[in-house]
Amino acid sequence: MDPSRDEPRTPTVEEAARRHREARAFDPTAPLEPAVLDRILSIATLAPSPFDLQPWRFVVVRDEAARRRLMGCARNDPRAGRAPVVVVVLAYHHPDRTHLEPMLAARIASGACTPAQAAEIRGRAASALRDVSDRASWATRSAMPAAALLILAAESLGVGSAALEWFDDESVRRELGVPDDHSVACLIALGRATEVGPPPGRFGLEEVCRAEHFGGPWGA
Amino acid sequence: MDPSRDEPRTPTVEEAARRHREARAFDPTAPLEPAVLDRILSIATLAPSPFDLQPWRFVVVRDEAARRRLMGCARNDPRAGRAPVVVVVLAYHHPDRTHLEPMLAARIASGACTPAQAAEIRGRAASALRDVSDRASWATRSAMPAAALLILAAESLGVGSAALEWFDDESVRRELGVPDDHSVACLIALGRATEVGPPPGRFGLEEVCRAEHFGGPWGA
Q1: Model pTM greater than 0.90?
Q2: Looking at chain B from residue 172 to 211, which residues have their Cβ under 8 Å from any Cβ of chain A?
Q3: ipTM score assigned to the predicted complex
């Protein structure tokens, strides 16, 4: 039996993206069930990443006192204190040092690739990452798809979320003991939203897109 | 009548994320229909962004000669030449200068916020962005959710995709005439995949997550 038959159909990618509204306030008395939190985090780990290196780490802050301290790192945004969970998405600068071999070994073990294919991936990853001069920027850029998917996954499961955009990097690092080889990509508050932002309002494709070249008008 | 009734149900967020495999090769004879491309791009514009500033631009490269030149900027990755479309996602450094007022005006016009609320958002955005020392990194980080959603939207509509990770930033900028106040966030090839990568294989939450603090084991 398919267990998903028992649950209401969750929205499609487009529906979830269209429905999403940033939570403006959270209900501090409504906990986020551990199974739902685990599912959101698990979906986030499915995000694509360069060479499948998955350069993200999630520090999951649930303790109330810890969230209050985190609030102090985020310009006293009350959502950090009131949402039952704040996920701090970190970006790891050197996943090629520690993630690449376990990832390739798992793929070989599962039959997903041959040792020769693994060697080819290893070579390409090493060459590509040798060219990366700013590892912190590279890692942050590469970790953001997981943060985006985390927000979309929460939306699709009916959980409110807000990216707390305005935080002091150094204070967050100190508060959570983040080592120098990790950057803080973003802070995401999760819980039951009691108030959400307005419909975001999007620029149309004629504004956002260019054809063939930066100067090329779209749809011309 | 609901036109979506006529089309097969597209996958949920979790299904699309689980199904996604990077395209290893594309069918150069299979075009991407303009309506499908528009829908993928439109879904990508729904991504969340700081203060809804939407700091992304998509240069959509379809011309074959242009794609071949782009291939030369991406270590000769044949996918740039063979996929019918390559979307170059750019990150704009100063959306607060040019996007904020139109966005607020549209919200006021639609009744989504009052002039007083708009003034409050304007103030918070200005303060937050004043603190951003590295605009290129900020913009790239803020544009990546749109890139991630673009890939997920393509997956959900049955379109193959691959992020071309290894490109020369300067060559891409020169080729596409990208001005200095925009960064190249990523290159995404789109089309009919004739070969896809292996199941990606994910690190489990016990590896990825930390509880309360960087040093806190998950699930302990």
Answers
A1: yes
A2: 176-179, 182, 185-186, 198-203, 205, 208-211
A3: 0.93
